[in-house]
Amino acid sequence: MFVYLCSMAKKKAKNTEKKVKVSTASTSFKGAPSWFNNQKLHLILIGLFSLALYFNTIGHDFALDDSIVITENEYTTKGFAGIPKILSKDTFRGFFKVDGKANLVSGGRYRPLTLVQFAIGYSIFGENATIGHLMNILWYALTGMLLYLLLIRLFKNRIHDGFAVFIALGTSLLFIAHPIHTECVANIKGRDEIMALLGSLATAYFILKSWQDKNDKLVYVAAIIFFVTLFSKENAITFLGVIPLMLYAFTNASISEIAKKTVPLLGAAIAFILVRTAVIGFDIGGNPPLEMMNNPFVKVVGNQNVYFSFSEKFATIMYTLLRYIELLFVPTTLTHDYYPRHIDIMSMGNVKVIISILLHIVLLGYGLFSAAKKKLVGFGILYYLGTLFIVSNFLFPVGTNMAERFLFMPSVGFCLIIAYLLYQLGLKISKSNTISEFKQLNVSLGILALVCVAFSVLTILRNPVWKNNLTLFTTDAKTSVKSAKLQNAAGGVLIDTYSNEKNEQIRTQKMNEAVMHLKQAIKIHPSYKNAYLLLGNAHNYLKKFDESIRYYEHALALDPSYKEAKNNVAITYRDAGRYYGEQKNDLNKSLQYLLKSEQANPEDFETLRLLGVAFGITGKGEKAISYFLRCSKLQPNNAGVWLNLGNAYGQMGDIQKAETYRAKAKSIDPNILQQRGN
């Protein structure tokens, strides 16, 4: 693409000279009110606008992947002491806490910059979500401000006619207001996207300043910023294409001069890749896993997971590219989860796939043609396509079909084009052929204000959904009905939240809601072992023990080494034994379950205690004693164990031992006899 643009450079050089050499004597738009020419005021407006839009997130809790990078990350929670490990391990290693699992997503992840920020914040403020949300807003505001400054500098030759200010202010306000960004700002973990774009814009700013001010030293400042930025998120590397394209489209720099500005950035990118490779290895594409939750291009055929065919994968990716464009224009049905099968398996015959293919061919063709002519729209299109391509799943699987956060960087191109089109539309509506008076921008500013208001309302209304996992998962599960991951998450969060609910009616209602979500998950993904585990948990709380056990056994059939399922099935056998013994007075059934619990976990104290009680009640004193003796080895300082053992010996007629063990119980807890009524 860049070669094609370069080939057009000489043909357009003469015209470019004429365009670039517009008089720069005027530093303001004559006839405009003072606020329009006040760039400092614009920066303050962008900052306050950002704060106003996201102020209602400051009191939010941690949510979604915040646990991975903050609350449950063993390195982040060590504060400053954890920083060396953050820098030397895969980003997910601190969460999984064991080697190997960090590479569940193809290629691994190495994004230590934001984790270092979180570790520093943890040292200073502790586990404080409010500070995390506030910092996200501030970084977001700074990103909007820097975007404004970059565009003002990019179009500084047209300050005098209002074009530069309108494009810079319009693009920045549209970007700040767009609801598609709620995931990145309202979710603390989204800071990696913010920092990646902020650093990339800063890199572009200093490269442009270096060219305009003829200061070659600034190129090396830009290279250092770019190197650091790449440690936030790898997609910043796309600016290796964006920056030379920017210089070509908006300056009269020669090809050799553009290359000279770009080479230090290439060096920074190579240095980053070497560091990344040294830490987590080089496996960008890798072998995509055959698990639907880690690779969206896996389907179930019979009882086996198989990869999509090439045509299915291509069609599905093209469909998601169309969905991205739809969300940019109409961001009304947002969700944080686009996992299988929220995006279904597509075929080349699908109408939307065909539309997407044709649309993107047109966009790419027009973008190349228009950018070669140094047109703003052409640059915006190529910027959008280029920055989105890296997360499109074409190069390598990114772990999900699509995500709103993947539009954070590309949306700058969209906002730039929309600002330009609004500018042109305003002029046409005003039926003016000249741009010498400010009043001719009133229509453009009015339309811009309406769009920003509409976006702002959607953003403010979307933010409360990110309050916590319960709100987020249960709300978005209504949108992502076909997402196995989200249905599973909704079921899990309902169980976690209401398992200790004292109101039995509410607890039962919420557990049944959880079951509904979890059954939907396994309907979509029949081999989803975690969904079976959670179904077992839900039925345990519903006291439907046989069903609970059946789901655990299904999970173990999928993965015989599934530790959580092994533990939980033993607990469920124990709970069932207690339930039938204490509440149903069915000692035979109670013993059946308790013996199975013992078989599953021979060292569980409570199971052994209950077996001792059950055998004691049924008159099998010797067995009761044997279980209480095993309990005493597990918890030798438990007064209740020694009292039970004394009572068992008393039932057997051994008064001496009975008194000995009762005395031992009393020595540990002097009030034990009164408490137990002995």
Could you please describe the fold and organization of this structure?
The protein is an all-alpha fold. The chain has three domains: 2-60 and 128-460, no CATH class; 470-602, Alpha Horseshoe (Serine Threonine Protein Phosphatase 5, Tetratricopeptide repeat); 620-678, Alpha Horseshoe (Serine Threonine Protein Phosphatase 5, Tetratricopeptide repeat). 66% of the residues lie in helices and 1% in strands. The protein contains 32 helices and two strands. Strands 1-2 form a two-stranded antiparallel ribbon. Strand 1 (298-301) and strand 2 (304-307) form a beta hairpin. Helix 4 runs antiparallel to helix 9 (129-154) and helix 14 runs antiparallel to helix 18 (376-389). It is elongated and about 105 Å long. Residues 1-25 have low confidence and may be disordered.
